[in-house]
Amino acid sequence: MNTPSRHALRILATLSVAASAGTAIAAPSCGTDPVVLNAYFETGFPLPTRLSAEFTKQFPNVTFDIKEDQFANMMENSPRILSEDNAPDLIRLPSLTDLVANNLLLNLDSYFTEFGWDKFPAGQLVQLRVEEGGRPRGTGSLFGMGLNYSMTGVFYNKALAEQIGMTEPPKTVAELDALMAKAKEAGLLPIMQWNKGTAGLAFPLQNLMGAYGPPEPINDWIFQKDGATINTADALEAAEHLDGWIKAGYFPPDANAIEYFQMMSRFIGGEGLFMFNGDWESGNLDTNAKDKFGFFIMPSAEEGGRHASMSAPLSYGIGAKAAHADCAAFFLDWVATNEEARKINVAVGGSNPGGPADMAIPPVEPGSVTEQSLAAGAVLAQDNGAMDFIANATGAIFAAGWTPELQKMVGGQQTATGLVEAVQKEYETQLSR
């Protein structure tokens, strides 16, 4: 027999008292007593820390005990960390399904009601919903919230683009190919991309998947829908195209030795015409390399075709053992609805801050990378082309599937067919456990 959680008991008690007194139910808060939120953030991304500092400024009784780790380590260590007695109140969620299956995350359905999150566009939260038992995703209870809602696309170096005669973003994959060929002929590196630790080539691969086919089958696979597969004709065509870029020398020859932050340093330093990455770097580029870079959405295979790209919440959840669950939930609501928090989110995170549909996105500097990435996000929303990241299909598919197979492809030891077959086999193995 399942016993009610501490959070569920609090809600029941509050409802009972409110009903008997005929009073309105107050949403949870951090109160006025001193609170230290135990937080587990991803290394190298300043947005959560900046938001935490502003939150403490507005609510001085709340401070944060922040621990940070690399994304790959979070994928591996989150189950252990969430199972400990001192589990995080707030945690960056690398994947949801396994954590929900093992009862390590707090169900947020009651907060959805108390904070009025039904005013948020349903599409913002769909990737954070999971059925009982951990699968499938996309429906069921809410187990996370986004600090913002990012998308991936293509950054480009304006000076190098001018050097090869690029006057506007490409409208088709063929036009993108032609620009890369021009860059190669001019002695320039067409694409700066990392592929060590966690495979950065998954970014251009999934963008190519979205160019060659609809996003729905990819989301079905990521959400673990029955019978879903990544071994499709569209995915194979995308993998073959990526392999063509590798064989043409469009990526750095040492891609398998390049880590994410090395990629960023080299790209900002002028190495590479293009970089496949997320709009979370828009604010960084606007601040540290003003007017030097631009951003465009991945073009479709045919001009005028539907755009599809990875677009996902910067997912955070509350540990099932969290000591300060109400305060953590209040923080997540504040991030989406507080005016100053939303300004920080756009300026630092470079992404749509989400929140209620009727809240305007804070203004940004005209001509900035952030303006371009937000405009690309609007195009993606219009085409209903958002995909979750293929790395999030299971808790281990990035480390055990995509990363080694894409590294083999860069090393000339894996084919496009072998790639999608190997990843699908690993996916099925993981789901059978």
What does this structure look like?
The structure is a single chain. This protein is α/β, with parallel strands linked by helices. It has 18 helices and 10 strands. It has helices at residues 6-21, 47-58, 71-83, 97-101, 109-115, 122-125, 158-163, 173-185, 202-212, 216-222, 233-247, 260-268, 282-288, 325-337, 339-349, 369-382, 397-410, 416-431, and strands at 35-42, 62-69, 90-92, 129-130, 141-142, 145-157, 274-278, 293-296, 309-317, 386-387. The strands form 2 sheets. Strands 1, 2, 3, 6, 7, 8, 9 and 10 form an 8-stranded mixed β-sheet that branches. Helix 2 (47-58) packs antiparallel against helix 15. The longest helix is centred in the N-terminal third of the chain and has 16 residues, at 6-21. It is globular, with a radius of gyration of 22 Å. The model is unreliable at 1-24 (pLDDT under 50).
* Average pLDDT for all residues: 92
Strand content: 5-15%
Q: What proportion of the residues is helical, as a percent range?
A: 40-55%
Q: Count helical runs.
A: 18
Poorly predicted ranges (pLDDT <50, ≥5 residues)? Answer: 1-24
Q: Compute the separation of the termini in Å.
A: 24 Å
Structural class: alpha/beta
Give the overall shape, derived from the CA principal axes.
globular
How is the topology of this model organized?
Elements: H1 6-21, E1 35-42, H2 47-58, E2 62-69, H3 71-83, E3 90-92, H4 97-101, H5 109-115, H6 122-125, E4 129-130, E5 141-142, E6 145-157, H7 158-163, H8 173-185, H9 202-212, H10 216-222, H11 233-247, H12 260-268, E7 274-278, H13 282-288, E8 293-296, E9 309-317, H14 325-337, H15 339-349, H16 369-382, E10 386-387, H17 397-410, H18 416-431
Parallel strand pairs: 1-2, 1-3, 9-10
Antiparallel strand pairs: 3-9, 4-5, 6-7, 6-8, 6-9
Helix pairs in contact: 2-15, 9-11, 11-18, 14-15, 17-18
